[in-house]
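Narrative summary of target 7.
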Amino acid sequence: MMSGPIQLRVVIEDSQVHKLVLAGGIPSTVDELLATAQNHFHLQGSFTVMYMDKDFDDQFFTLMSTDVIKDKDTIKLVKTEPSVVLTFTPISETDASSPAASLDRSFQDDGSSVSSSDTVIIQQPPEHRSQPWPVDFVVPTFSFNVEMLLQAGCKAYESDGSLLQNPSINSDILEKLAEAIFHYTAYPTGLQIQAVVESLINKYPCLKEPGTSFSGMYGWQQRLKYKMANYRSKMRKQVPCPELDINSLKRKSPGEKNPAKNCKRPKRAEVNYLPPHPSGETSNSLEKERQELLYEVKKKNNTKVIQDKMAKTFSYRRIEVVSGSPAADEFRERWPALFCEAEVGEPQI
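Modeled conformation, tokenized:
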């Protein structure tokens, strides 16, 4: 190991380049070299030291020993993120002040192990669905008057088997059911509609309609099916909703001016099939993000920036896929980052 003054070119996080003079020569260990660089440049946190290998066209490799470092070589300091484990705990709407998630962090710093546990509340953006279709659909609570009538009807049903014949409450029941269904999906399947009606009849058996089918559910299934269509029309007029707008008649070609023809809807239980753009973003602003991504993918060690921009443009990309059905080559050209190793295995909600 050289004992005379040594000069090194130090690259920090691809954004800074400095010269480091080691008056006593190169330290004998990688940890000592890292500590010297951190003290000199006043760096906080955990870093990995890499060196530029001229045998491989100046590619960077993880530094395992300082024996390979020579005068005027280039090293690189890459900040490492501490490992984070998130443990989610469901909360009820009536207890919003209770912890929604527990954040446990454990990380290594200078060979010592430090653990900490903090409680944070993690909220899903309101424009995104956060839950898939439930195994057991929970019937929502209806208005006070309707609940009173249903309770009285169930008591009469248990007493003498009589059914509740009060069409005036149907509208309120269907509205609440449609609202609850829309929380999970805008386009429920026939089986999902059936599951909702089964839960309704199990909770309120007085609502059976024996005249429509043996199970007494057929009438409710048909009414709920048409109610969902009306509910989608109402929501389309009230709030921006891409998964509804894409199926509006004005967006369909002349040969497909039929509400049921070529209806684009989730087919594989996607929770966010066509989510709206993030708050404050438009198609134009997200197109600029896409264009910036074309340059970001060409940079080395730029995974974090790419992942952030890919997550931000998810809604824009989904609209392009669902509405345009682009060819694979065309899509790869527009979104090359999607085919990177880091993105291929990235789960999309």
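The beta strands are 6-12, 16-22, 47-53, 59-62, 74-79, 84-88, 101-109, 112-120.
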